[in-house]
Amino acid sequence: MAYQITEKCAGCTACARLCPVFAISGERGKRHVINPKRCVECGVCAHVCRKEGVAGGIADEKGDFPRYLPRKLWPKPSIQQEACSACQMCVHACTPGALSMTLPQFRGDLKVYAHLGAAAKCVGCGLCAKACPLRIITMVFPEAETGKGDSA
In this structure, what are the phi and psi dihedrals at residue 47, rounded to the nearest 5 degrees? Predict the structure, then answer.
């Protein structure tokens, strides 16, 4: 079941701009809609949705309202580079263009692999991990910065 946009939607367009599969549409200032056939349930839309003083306008498959998540806390792909076959399936699945292949270091270098070359473009959707036939990509959440050394 796909995420749902509720009547709390302010029409800010943040979700539509960051959806990696272009499943969200709508006009600025009006309630947006999610195409359930396109939605891959990555949660990016819920991460960016926030409305001052109330829960966001996007409900997950259980009807809960996920909390807004600052971009610095979005998950990023961790790639086991030594196991990468360089098939590039993850690179092609990454619609924001965050993943790329390393360049050969010398003529005949076969030790190329996928890497997060443009981390700022990564939306944490996990499509790269789903596309990897070797299952060597995992999505990792960065540790929350509490300033007190606490671990959550």
Answer: -65, -35
Q: Hey, what CATH class is 73-140 in? A: alpha beta
Tens of pLDDT along the chain (152 residues)?
678 999 989 899 999 999 999 999 999 999 999 999 999 999 899 889 876 545 678 988 888 888 888 889 999 999 999 999 999 999 999 999 999 999 999 998 889 999 999 999 999 999 999 999 999 999 999 875 444 433 33
- CATH tag, 1-69: 3.30.70.20
Taking the C-alpha atoms of residue 137 and residue 133, their distance in angstroms, rounded to an integer, is 10
